[in-house]
Amino acid sequence: MVLLRSLPATLPILFVCEISFLLGHGLIMTLLGVRMSLEGFPSQMAGLLMSSFSLGFVLGSYFIEKRIRSVGHIRVFAACAAMLAVTAMLHGIWINPWAWLVWRVAGGAATAGLLMVMESWVSGESTNDNRGKVLGWYLVISTMSLAGGQWMLNLADPATSVLFSVAGMLFALSLVPLSIHRIHGPSSSNHDVAHKIKLRELYKRAPVGLVGAFTGGLMAQAFFAMTPFYGQEIGLSTQQTAQFMAITTMVALVAQWTLGRVSDRIDRRKVILCMAAVMAATGAFISVAAGYSYLALLVVACLHTAMLHTLYSLSLAHTNDWLEPEEVIAANSKLMIWYGIGSVIGPFSASLVMQVVGPEGLWLFLGGAALSLAVYVSVYLLARRRRRVDREVEVEQEPYAPLPIIETSHYINELDPRFEPHQLEFDFAHLDIGVDDSDQAESEEVSAQASVP
């Protein structure tokens, strides 16, 4: 708590809200996969339900941002938390796959709203002096809370409605810190000054980043959505399933820092290629490991997810290397759209493969997606090496900044400390001039009139 005292007073309150929300989110995402297996839902229905969550998330990312600007952060946070609490408990009241599909779309939109509120708020409260520290706290708290929620699957029998009620209570409790403290909305945001960049131009500059973001969404959401279902189908106990999900989530903390530092020294495209190759290999081998022992399954899966949970943030970092600072927010929002498209396609596609070949189809799907990415990056790098006539300009890579493994909107990129110099230049210019925009415009007008003969 001593370290938190050095942050703005609003941030610890927001972090407490985040902990409660992500505990509930981690619990219900894992619980749904287990419960669908217990209820005998076919794998393609399970995949469709999980894809509907991602669809709701993408839709919420588009429409809820306007409500934030209209009615404010606190009201939108309250509405989304209430919606999540209601939909969580409705899952336990009415066990019907088509009803669950509606709850999942609504839950995905509400989750997008909560994340947008928290990320834009945290971004607005951070400064150039503490931006790196805030991003580090956000990363650790989000990952540990998500893993903690997955561990909570052991609190009660997943065949009952108790855990759905627990998830609902956690979502409702996330409202309490905001309700009992007098706090203000975010004090600043750089989102409004972002420059636009066309998708074609973005792909021309960083095709590996765009394809990597899409593949990251495809694989990550398939993993989170279908792995609890997979665990039940191969005979894992509820405790083992919860442990498996929590450990494979927490490994992301170590993986992001380690692989990020490696990518600061080596071309990130080559790092992404190696990561994709490792994921393809482990995807093919993991079914064999599962037949050997639970420990072998866990070890191989951790190696796979260490790469998987880092893929999107590394693709984002590579893309940012080819952008001007003022283009980052707009470009990253486009990467998030493609990540969202992948997250809609991934769970249902994985479930179809599982329907055909059995539970191990999940890892065949993940391995196949990783292999496709590896082939694409290899072909691109080979073609680039031969296309010397184009004289493609090399860029200096910016330091890597890890990101949370949960679905995230483009607001969190404003916390990225790599773009501090651009913000500092703006601040110094403002201080040196010593006047506001209206005074400066008036001065320029007077000078222009004086120069007229």
UniProtKB/TrEMBL annotation:
Taxonomic classification: Bacteria, Pseudomonadati, Pseudomonadota, Gammaproteobacteria, Oceanospirillales
Coiled coil regions in record: none
A Pfam entry, by short name: MFS_1
The Major facilitator superfamily (MFS) profile domain, residue ranges: 205-453
Keyword Membrane among record annotations: yes
Gene Ontology molecular function terms on file: transmembrane transporter activity
Assigned keywords, A-Z: Membrane, Transmembrane, Transmembrane helix
Record-linked PANTHER family: MFS TRANSPORTER, TRANSPORTER MFS SUPERFAMILY
This protein's record includes keyword DNA damage: no
Transmembrane segments: 12-33, 45-64, 76-95, 101-122, 134-153, 159-180, 208-230, 242-259, 271-288, 294-314, 335-357, 363-383
GO cellular component, one term: plasma membrane
Protein's name according to its UniProt entry: Predicted arabinose efflux permease, MFS family
